Amino acid sequence: MVNFAMHRFAVFLAVSTLFLIVAGASVTSNEAGLSVPDWPLSYGQVMPEMKGGVFYEHGHRMIASIVGFLTVVLAIWMWRSEERPWLRRIGFIAVGAVILQGVLGGITVLYLLPKAVSISHACLAQLFFSTTVALALFTSPAWRTGPQYVQDSGFPSLRSLAIFASLATVAQVALGAGFRHRAFGILPHIFGAIVVTVVLLTVATFVLTQFPKHRALSKSAWAVIGVTGAQVALGVIAYVSRLNHWDSAPTSVLIASTVTHVAFGALTLASVVALTVEVFYHVRPRAEVASGLSPVSR
Q1: Rounded to an integer, what is the distance from CA 266 to the centroid of its chain?
Q2: 3-state secondary structure (DSSP) of residue 99
Q3: Alpha helices for the chain (secondary structure H)
Q4: What is the pLDDT of residues 253-280, one digit of tens each?
């Protein structure tokens, strides 16, 4: 039975998490990372004066608190009314992730932005967003209708390619976070972007070529293509803006392009994760089909 209210709440959580990522990127892009020197309070207050960098830093904390609360509510809701044990477990994993994310955020402030912690904080944010997107997918009416099985006839297997694409995207997220937090230069991120773009477009094309009439798979594949294309364009805009203002204070164009680039990075990872989930749900390897473990239909 589909719980439409739970699904809508999961979608709201995913959208809120994306907004949180935008708020976090705004902190870094506006160089407001240490505008509030203490944690968990801000200048010893629950609500300090919201001016200058405090607006971005404390605003980020407020949104994070709301997302954390929403995550706990969804996990409790699923624990009480969701009959799928594996989904209830994912809900509590999401709670653990959002708590860890808050702790990492506090450590970045208390220890003056240690690079390893800051990068981990940025990466976990995007992984958590992908988790919320997966929760929205798992609670959707389309998912509850059951899989529409198709046979994987390619080599290497589509499952393997999808996993590789997801891992490559996570690595690219880490390279982007490393550059933003000045652990290294931009060249590794640019090289990674080229590799990941080729990988994602190849996997998406594979899916569309094999299963052009499969609604769930083709929809996910087109989402990957669209978001990846937008992300590449935004990356170019952000890089050109940075070249023009490398040694000066960030401009509104640079800030806007960089923040949007980070947001679409999160969307790229989430779209690849969603495609990978759909592949594992609908696509059956040839050997599995031959053994009679699942029906096959085009």
Answers
A1: 4
A2: helix
A3: 4-29, 53-81, 85-110, 115-138, 141-144, 158-180, 187-210, 215-244, 252-282, 286-290
A4: 888 989 999 999 999 999 999 999 999 9
Gap between the Cα atoms of 220 and 279, Å rounded: 9
Residue entry with tokens 């609604």: 215
Q: For residue 212, what are the CA distances in angstroms to 80, 82, 152, 268, 298?
A: 39, 33, 13, 21, 9
Q: What DSSP state is assigned to residue 42?
A: B
Helix (H) or strand (E) holding 151: strand 150-152
Kind plus residue range of the DSSP H or E element containing 285: strand 283-285
Beta bridge partners of residue 152, listed in sequence order: 285
Q: Which tokens sit at 35? A: 């505008």
Structure tokens at 283: 């696509």
Other beta carbons within 10 angstroms of residue 215's beta carbon come to 11
- pLDDT band of 243, cuts 50, 70, 90: confident
Domain ranges of the chain: 1-145, 146-298
Instruction: Identify whether the C-beta of residue 83 lies closer than 8 Å to the C-beta of residue 5.
Output: no
Report yes or no: 226 and 253 within 8 Å, Cβ to Cβ. Answer: no
Q: How many CA atoms lie within 13 A of 24 on its CB side?
A: 30
Q: Which amino acid is at 150?
A: V
- C-alpha 151, offset from chain centre: 28
Q: How far apart are CA 178 and CA 226, in angstroms?
A: 25
Contact 189, 172 (CB under 8 A): yes
β-strands 283-285, 150-152 pairing:
parallel
pLDDT digits (tens, 9 = 90+) for 88-98: 999 999 999 99
Residue 191, token pair as written in the block? 């090289």
What single letter denotes the amino acid at residue 124? L
